[in-house]
Amino acid sequence: MFQYITTKIFYGFLTLLGVVTVVFFLFNILPGDPARMLMGQREDSEQLEIIRKKYGFDQSVGTQYLYYLNDLSPLSFHSKNENHYTSLASEKYTFKNIFSVGDLSVVVKYPYLRESFQKNGKSVTSVIKETLPNTIVLASFAITMAIVLGILLGVFSAVYKNSTLDKLIAVLSTLGMSLPSFFSAILFAWFFGFVLHEFTGLEMTGSLFVVDDFGEGIYIQWKNLILPAIVLGIRPLAVVSQLMRNSLLETLNQDYIRTARAKGLSNFKVIKNHALKNSLNPVVTAISGWFASMLAGAVFIEYIFNWNGLGKEIVNALDTLDLPVIMGSVLVISSIFIIINILVDIIYVWLDPRVKLN
Fold it and tell me: What would the CATH number be for the domain defined by 124-351?
């Protein structure tokens, strides 16, 4: 198990390196001067030159790429000379100095995602820390709803195969998978937040944390979570329900299920004790992929519902060409994908002991 996890982590780092490379060169071949983006309207040739030298923008793209890897790497070079660019990470990101050669130090540090171009030098790490928890809360509620309802609907659909209930669930699942998320978000916001506002008490837009009318404090508004969570969970719910139905039907045709029924066990006990657990493997695969993609796919939903999450922050960063925020957000989401995939492989072994980790 330890060797398997170590191997997966190694390949995960290689995958992340590929993501870093693609993201860096994708955004650094775009037209525009990063120094001017950072300065905004304050165009001063002397200041621009200082910014280019400080952040390494005066170097070749290949050299800038190496500098970026140095900033991201936990083990990196750090210069004590302010006029010599090696790493932008300040002392607060460094927690151990291994050794020094001249003005260069080899240090162990936290990965540094640099500073936002548009938020007055605010670190990208701080921006992500403020917005990612809101997205995780939204995605967690959405995937929980999709898991619980999807498994229940899938079980009912399999038990009552070819019935009116089965056909109704199939139609609703097809509709849920085919509707674009942004269209569902607009429809739900208008219908439940505007047309039926007097009955539901829900707002068309709103985030988890809300400032009170007098500006004296921030409080949690849980009702603002309902509509975006439902919209975000519709498609995974539809997928989970159909996967659960098909997997359970296949499992119910196995020989050991017939043996369990021959022993006189009720249909409920056969499904609960024997069939359900062995039918969850494809569902777990779908859930892992959907949960990770929700962190990236919530972009339009967060923007429409004005939910202050990472997705909305990415849209704002794209609008203002805030490249460090975009790149840092993509890397964080990619890291979450890798971690979830490793956890899913471990869960497989718990669900089905026949699965071997190689």
Answer: 1.10.3720.10
